[in-house]
Design a protein that fits this description.
2 strands
Length: 266
């Protein structure tokens, strides 16, 4: 692996970014840049998918420097950005797809439909949990700031599909909002989570528990009330198990209330 000289890296990334409007040249140049800084090239077997991506394993500062150089282009010429993003995603390399997700998230959200169409296409194209999580978080970061309603409609559509993978993607998206201290419309998150909980077959206990722990930190009372309602209306094994897992997060009063509710309905 070549040692990183910040000044040289900045020049390399600036020169590569000049090919922003020419995806083919940019792709070729990006392979050269990543190859220059590669620790080693290896096959990355993505979990639960037949797709195997190659990875250059470059140090984090390399992609970060390139993203910094691309910011101005993405802001000033977003329409061309979609063409570059599509070309990046087609490359079956981890770093290329990571960059595609970052660029999608950094685009001005003037056309939410174009952004969400790509998110849906990418989710359908990939079952790797890490990449799907990035798509629903980093890939939607700018749109979430400007038009959260569009994302919640999209999440609602994912939930309506009824598939486990789409429910998981929806939970990733909800978690991003839950972790944002500036987002205070928690009822919309609870409402969508309640829809997911109606489908016992999707399981996803790890993801649901993670979301509930985040929501408990944002508003303990709302989260306790939500769980009490779910226990009394759903009365399904999964919600009992999830509630038991998150019980330690609550204060003694809410913990006692939830234990009593568990005893009444389990």
């Amino acid at each position: 692996m070549t040692a990183i000289n910040p000044a040289r890296l900045k020049i390399q990334c600036a020169e590569l970014s000049e090919n922003y409007s020419s995806p083919a040249k940019f792709i070729s140049g990006l392979h050269d840049l990543l190859g220059f800084y590669a620790a080693r090239i290896r096959q990355t077997d993505l979990s639960r998918t037949p797709l195997t991506l190659q990875a250059y394993q470059v140090p984090t500062p390399v992609l970060r420097a390139l993203v910094n150089e691309l910011e101005e282009y993405l802001a000033e010429k977003p329409s061309l950005g979609f063409k570059l993003i599509d070309a990046l995603w087609k490359e079956e390399w981890v770093e290329f797809r990571q960059l595609a997700i970052i660029c999608l998230g950094d685009l001005p959200p003037f056309d939410p439909e174009q952004i969400l169409n790509r998110v849906k296409s990418w989710l359908d194209d990939c079952t790797a949990e890490d990449i799907r999580r990035r798509i629903m978080t980093r890939g939607l970061i700018h749109l979430a700031e400007e038009n959260s309603k569009a994302i919640f409609r999209f999440i609602g559509d994912l939930i309506s599909s009824g598939t486990k993978l789409n429910h998981q993607a929806a939970l990733f998206g909800l978690l991003a909002f839950g972790e944002n201290p500036d987002f205070d419309n928690l009822p919309v998150i609870f409402g969508l989570l309640a829809e997911i909980l109606q489908n016992e077959e999707s399981v996803l206990i790890k993801e649901i528990t993670a979301l509930l722990k985040v929501l408990q930190k944002q508003s303990e009372q709302e989260t306790a009330y939500f769980l009490e309602r779910q226990l009394s209306t759903a009365a399904k094994p999964r919600i009992f198990r999830i509630t038991r897992q998150v019980l330690p997060e609550f204060n003694p009063e809410n913990r006692s209330m939830l234990r009593i509710t568990l005893g009444n309905y389990s």
